[in-house]
Every structure is written in C-alpha cells, then in structure tokens.
Design brief:
The structure is a homodimer of 414-residue chains. Chain A is of the alpha+beta class. In chain A, 18% of the residues lie in helices and 31% in strands. Chain A has seven helices and 28 strands. In chain A, strands 7-4-6-5-9-8 form a six-stranded mixed sheet, with no helix packed on it. A six-stranded mixed sheet of chain A has the order 16-13-17-21-20-18, sandwiched between helices. At the A-B interface, α2, β15, α3, β19 and α6 of A face α2, β15, α3, β19 and α6 of B.
C-alpha cells in the first residue's frame, strides 16, 4: 500500500567504482616539456642517457691530489705538495697531476687526470707555491665518482609516476627536454533542471542559479583537468540528447540532476542511447542515485542534482575514473602524512632541523643514503620526507615516525 | 689553525621565516570569476545578497497542504483532500490553497500560498480528483523555509578563505559572478653557476644542465603560481645584477646557487644592493646557506645550488612567504587527515557509506546539522568529511575519529 520509492538494487561504492574503472582504457600518449611537466602521468620508463655524475668530480673545496702523496700527513707532520694550478667548476682541466703536486679545486669541478682524492681546504695551509697537507686522505676521498649517482641506462623514473618538481629536476639534469605522458582528459559539464538559470541571467521568483557547473568546473580545475561547461539542459530528452552529443566530443562527461527514478529523471534513459550503463544506484549517502555509463571509452558520470551529493560523487567516482584514463590509481596522496617504522638510524644534530629523504613502503621507512653528489637521485629513490626537529638528536632504528609523502603513490594498470 | 668555514650565526628555521613574513604585505586585490576561482585567497567577506532558500519550497515530492487539514489522518482513517492543480520546479504557482484542498508538488518547487506543509507521496493515494492523506503532518513539515539555510546579509565566506569548489557552488547559488581576491604573485626564477648550461644547449665535458630552474618552475606550478624562468647567470656580479633587475619586475625572485660564504658566493652581496637581507644562514640540513632579502615588498629568496637543498628551502620558506603576499598563513592543508573527538552522535545505516560533513576545530569534530535544503551552506559551515564505512552503524559522541579536511585551514593577517 505505502509505496517504496527508489532503487531495487544498490551497489556498494567500491564495486560500482571497480566496474566502471575496469571498462576504461588509457587515453593517447603525448609529449610534455620538462619545464611544465608537473602533475602529468608518465607513459614510459625514462632511462638515464648518460652517467651521473658524468665524470669524477670534487665533492669538497680543497686540493686535488694523489692520495698516496698524503699518507702520514698530520698537523704535527705536514706534507708539502707543489701547487700546479687550479680547476674551476665547468671547465675541463688541462692539467694532470704528477707525484708531489696538488691542484686547487672547487666542489663540482672535474678532477684532473692523475688525481684520485681531494684534501679539504680546512686541512691545508698555503705556503708560497706549496700546500701544506695537514691530514692524509684515502683514494677517492671527497670525490664524487662518475656514475655513482645514476648509471647509464638505469631506469630513473617509471611509467605511471605522477611527475613532481624533483622529477623535472632529475630529467633536466639528464638533458631530457620532453617526456611521454598520458593525455589529460578534457571533461564536459552539463547540469539539468527546469528550475535553473545560468549565472548572470535574471532569476525570476522561482528560479535557482546553476551552482553545480561552477562547482564542478572548479573541482576539475583543482585536479588540473580541463573543464568545459556546456550549461543547462531542461528536463527534456531532446535537450539532454543534444547536450550529450556536444559533450561526447570531449573525453568524459559529468551531468548532474535527473538521475533518480522519478518521471522527470530521464538522464539515465537518454545516456543509455549513447553507451552502456555500468551502474545506477549506489549505497552511499548523500548520492544514492549516482550512475555511470561508458560510451566508446568515454565515461559519462550521472551525479545527483543536490550540490553536496554531486561534489561527493565527483570525488568518489569521477576523480579515480579520470586517473584511470591516465592509466593509474592513486594509492596515497602527495603531502599526506603517514606513519611507519624506521628501518635504520637517522642521526641529527641538536639545534638543526634535518630534512631526511626516506622511502616509505607499506608501513616501513627506509632512510636513503645520499652519496656526495647523489642529491637529485635521492629525491627519485625516496618518496617522503622525515623532518627531525631542532630539539631531537635524530631517531633510532625501530622508532615509529611520521613522514610526509613527497609524491603521489600510484599503481599502474597494464 | 684549522679554519672553520661557515656562518658565524645561524638562525632557526622558524625565526628566519617569521622575520621574513613580518616584512611582507599583501599584494593588490583583483577580481576573479566564480567559474575559475579555485585556489584564490578571498580578500573580502562575502555576504548573502538574498535569503536561501529565497522562498518556502517543498523538501519532498508529494502534496502541498494546510497541515491543519491532515490532523488525525492515518492508513485506517484517510482524509480526503480535493486536488486543485500542481506546481513544477522553477515556476511561480498561480494557485492558492483553500481549506480542504491539496496541490501536487515536487522537491524544490515553490510552496503555493496557503499551504504550510507537504505530505510525502508515500503517505498518499490518488483517488480520482481526490487525494487520500494517510498520515498527518505538522506545520512546516517537509518544507524548506525561506532563509533557513542562509540569512540575507549573513557572512557566507570570510576574507582569507582559500576558495574551494564548494565555495564556487555557494557563490553561484547566490548569483555572485565575481569575487575580490588577492592577486597571486608572479615569481622569477634565476640560477647561478659557471658550470651550468640550459636544457637544449650542448654540454661540453664539464658542464652540467640547469636543473634548478625546471624544478622550481614546476614547484611554483604545483602551487598555482606563475613562474618566469630567467635562465642562468654566471658567477659574476654584473650578470647577477642584470638578472635581478629583470627579475624585480615580478613580485618575488628565487635565485639558486652562490649563497654561501666562499669567494664565488656573490649572490647575497649583489642582492643587498637591491634590498635588505633579512636572514643569511639557517639551522637546517640540507640548506644551511639559505638567505632571503626584501626589496620594496618583493621577497628575494637565495637558495643553495644543490637541488635538494633548493627544493626543501623552497617548501620551507618560499611557499609560506608567497602566501603572506596573499595575506594568509596555511595552518592545515586540504585533504590532510586529522584526528579528533566527536562532539555529537553520527548515525549511519549498515551497508551504506555515509559522507558526513563535520567541522574540525582544534581536535574537536562537530557534526553539521543539515536542514532540508541546507546542503550548500553545510559545505561552508563544515570544513571536513567524516566517512562512515559500510560496516559501521555510525559513531557515538566522544569517539575518536579520523576526518579529511575539505578546505585549507588558514589564519588571516590583518
């Protein structure tokens, strides 16, 4: 007697989303320049075209020497080496080091032939044309070795990474100007409702301004998708059909209102002329009448007309599906904080704030060893930051720490 | 004897940052359209230009009635009312309800004169030209009252809010097409170093590609700031001076390299010709040689040349200072998860995922009561989302819950 209005079956959020995602394929692959690659999803493994550093270089300011010449040196027993020139950063040295000689060198400069170590400036004293060495060095001390950071051909960034500023730095350091990424979807936005008028139009007494289109265009903007507002369709099959025809020139369509099962709710029926309905009705509040279809790899999201339900449906279904069009699933977001157990000791000095790059993986936090020059690759091999505050002398292995993700954690679909 | 190279004094990160921030004022105020306002910082309090809803409207599909006419109705004792027309959404009803009469109405439609309640369709039965009322209603039952969501003149968004998609929805629903926001800073990026070549240039054996500029341009892009790369200055005062002159046409300058205290580290000296050095040397690793100056309200950030130190210095100093140019400090980021104690009960149905809008404030979580139509304002009065998963029957007052922020939490400077 008392009618039950509603859906006969409602799907769980996860099952509805997975059904939708499984029916979508990645868009085409395009190239993007390294100066503006942020947020794009990498569509290829990027391999290092040369070694980094590309040559042995000084890791400290000081004197390039043959390590053997310094053995036994100390403050009380300085060893004298003859100064035979200097090497500046960016120049190819035209000197080679003979036994008993030293060459002045700065951090980052190419090691001259014959030299195999750098004595730090602090442990030397200039004496006319001679340098007094006050401390011995072992071979390769204070030298960043060719290839120690990145090997030639090594995969430096994997397909499916969402490119971050540090990745742009890594790519540039390898001389790479462009990378292949998945094209970002362009998304058409339509709202339906006889009661609606567009912003800027005059509203008579009973009309309501279209708030869903501005809201959803900004929600797309927030995630760097291009949004095309196609305005309002009245609750008529013809108007909705016409708007949908225009909308399907883009890669995805978001349409709000008219998604329930009342007599005016004609959206799912019209959409089904264009593509297959994947789900209609989900166990979610607000947002029960949410639906989705796919027409030739173009998702058509049908969100309820209520702005709250529309926005929550957008975050729940639209964003993950749009990322599927770029072949990835986001598992954890950049800047989110995560906890984990430290897998190694992290020393730090009292009074200094240390920004330690770590790799966070499934509740474990691995400190990343940073070699002399391995600074860029440390950002690629790590994915998170552990900040040691000024009042702590580091952390011990086994400590539970909180880290901040410095990149989105993604899963790539095949 | 053994020289100590470095800074005589190093400032703590917080003290350096606060000194810098205290010397910066907000940029000018500009207007932005509601369709693309996402991420802009509001420079004015926005007041509602009319009430929301702007008229009494039906909150359910059913029949608009005089509540008094339904008193005593039940399934076993239906009351007959005469059907005298219908009101569609978006139209101004030309009917008024006389005693003993009912008008068909849909959710969102304007209540006809004389009616003060809606009987849900489920509790009625159509019988020729009469409606059988199977359940009595109290006055204003299933009616969204004029102004119940937002009062005329009520401050709906405060100066200092970082505008979100839901705010765009609220503004549009009030017919507001543009709002006043702080202009976003345009930021010039320079790097220094004799060893550097620009991407695309041929690198001889000892040259290194400029990776800091692409990295920092992307880091600015990540935060929606306009980045202008001015390329490489060699380690010469003249070249740095020339680049700085061009850079100071913009609102802020980021310059990397040459910030330490060695003989080639001429950046702070040249910068001091243009403005006052605010700090030089901070207790941070990496990034100790970080410095900043201010020239006529334009911050000049001097970051170390090492990419890791440059990027961490960027996030530590540049981002907060650029937000100060828009008059706010970000206290907690949108999408971050926070914990708090629930200040009221949150019911939910087993098998349904509930998205509950809550206000998170200093470790307390307040559920937001959502009136019939109060959907948009619920997003403005709340700042976070509490998701009740399918397997839970809600939460009790006093439960510790985890919420997701749906907006950045900001402090506004005066």
């Amino acid at each position: 007697m008392i009618r039950e209005v509603g859906f006969r079956e409602r799907e769980s959020v996860n099952s509805a989303l997975e059904k939708l995602i499984s029916r979508l394929k990645a868009l085409d692959i395009v190239e993007v320049g390294v100066y503006s690659c942020y947020g794009h999803v990498l569509a290829e493994d990027v391999k290092a075209p040369f070694e980094v550093p590309p040559f042995d270089r000084a890791a400290m300011d000081g004197y390039a020497v043959r390590a053997e010449d310094t053995f036994g040196a100390s403050i009380s027993n300085p060893i004298l080496l003859e100064l035979s020139g200097s090497v500046e950063i960016g120049e190819v040295p035209n000197i080679s080091i003979e036994p008993g000689k030293a060459v002045k060198i700065v951090t980052g400069a190419m090691m001259p032939a014959g030299a195999n170590a750098v004595v730090m400036l602090e442990y030397t004293r200039l004496n006319g044309n001679f340098v007094e060495i006050l401390k011995s060095v072992t071979p390769m001390k204070n030298v960043s070795r060719k290839g120690e950071d990145v090997k030639h051909g090594e995969v430096i960034l994997k397909k499916g990474e969402i490119l971050q500023p540090q990745d742009a730095g890594v790519l540039a350091s390898l001389g790479i100007e462009k990378v292949k990424v998945y094209r970002r979807p362009r998304v058409a936005v339509i709202t339906t409702g006889n009661e609606l008028v567009e912003l800027g139009e005059r509203s008579d007494g009973a009309k309501i301004y279209n708030s869903n289109n501005p809201m959803l265009c900004n929600a797309l903007l927030e995630h760097r998708f291009e949004a095309i507002s196609l305005g309002i369709a009245r609750d008529s099959k013809n108007e909705i059909r016409e708007k949908l025809e225009s909308a399907l020139k883009y890669d995805a369509v978001v349409i709000t209102g008219g998604t329930s099962v009342g007599p005016k709710d004609v959206v799912p029926e019209v959409v089904s002329e264009f593509g297959e309905i994947v789900f209609h009705g989900v166990s979610m509040k607000p947002g029960m009448p949410t639906a989705a279809a796919v027409a030739e790899n173009k998702p058509i999201f049908m969100l309820p007309g209520s702005p709250a339900a529309a926005l929550l449906g957008f975050y729940t279904f639209v964003i993950p599906a749009l990322y599927k069009l770029m072949n990835v699933r986001i598992v954890a977001r950049k800047w989110s904080r995560q906890r984990g157990i430290l897998q190694g000791r992290v020393p730090s000095e009292i009074g200094v704030r240390s920004n330690v790059r770590v790799l966070w993986d499934d509740g474990k936090v691995y400190p990343i060893r940073i070699s002399g020059s391995g600074i860029l690759s440390s950002f690629v091999r790590s994915n998170a930051l552990l900040i040691v505050p000024e009042d702590r002398e580091g952390y011990e292995e086994g400590d539970e720490v909180e880290i901040t993700l410095l990149r989105d954690i993604t899963e790539v679909f095949e």
